[in-house]
Amino acid sequence: MSSMKVFLPALFCLFGFSASAQWLPFLKHKRYPALPEICSAPVQIKATALSKSVIKRAVLGSTSYSLSLNEYTVMKTAQHQMRFREYENASYSFNELAKIYVQLNKMSEAKWFFLQSNNLSRQQNNDRLTIANLIELASVKSTIGDFELAQQDLDEARSLAASHNWQDDLSNVQKSVNGLQRSKLVALKPEAGIAQTAEHNL
User: Fold this and answer.
1) Dihedral-angle region of residue 85 (phi above 0 means left; psi in -120 to 50 means alpha; beta otherwise)
2) Which residues are CB-neighbours of 74 under 8 A, at least 6 positions away?
C-alpha cells in the first residue's frame, strides 16, 4: 500500500511534464512585431468560412479588449485540449486563434497557428478544415507579400477540393486565387491595382 502512495504522485508528475512538453513549441515561438496599420483600403483575399465543420463559440468582438479576451479564452481552451490529446477539437481552436491574430494584425502568430491547425487537421483526415486552413494561410501569406507560397497553398486546396468534388470549396479557392492576382497587381502597379479593384466592385 505504501509503495502505491509513492507511485501515484510520481505518475501524476510524469503526466504533467509530458502534457506541458506538447505546448513548448508555441512558448518558444518567436513573436514578431505587428505589421503597421494601412490607412488606405488594402486589397486582401477574402477569408473563407468553413464549409461544414463550424466552430461552436461566441461571435468575436471587434475591439482590442474583446479580441484580447477571446485570445486568452481560446488559448486556455487549446492548451486543455492538447494536454488531454483532444486533437480534433484543438485543430479548430488553433484555427480560431489564428483568426483572432489576423484581426489583431499579428500575422506571424496567425500564420503559425494556421499551420498548427493544418497539421492536426491532416492527421485527423479532416479535409474540410485542411482546405479552409490552406485558404486562410494563402490570405496571410499574400498580406505579408509571400505570393508564391500563397499560390502553392491555393493549388493544394484546389486539388484537395477537386478530389472530393466539393464545388463550394472550389468556388472559395477560385475567389482567393482572383484576390491573390489583384494583390500581386497592386504590389507591382498600385494605381493599376486600385483601378482593377474599383472595377471589380462595380
Assistant:
1) left
2) 57, 93, 96, 97, 100
Q: How far apart are CA 62 and CA 42, in angstroms?
A: 18
Q: Which of 76, 104, 78 is nearest to 91 (CA)?
A: 78
Is this model's pTM higher than 0.85 or not?
Answer: no
Domain residue ranges in the chain: 61-124, 126-202
71-89 pLDDT, tens digit each: 999 999 999 999 999 999 9
Q: Are 98 and 26 in contact (CB under 8 A)?
A: no
- Distance, CA of 47 to CA of 176 (rounded, Å): 8
Block residue for cell numbers 482590442: 64
- Tell me the residue type at 125: N
Sequence-ordered list of residues with C-beta below 8 angstroms from that of 111, at least 6 positions apart, any chain: 98, 137, 140, 141, 144
Written as nine digits, the cell of 57 is 463559440
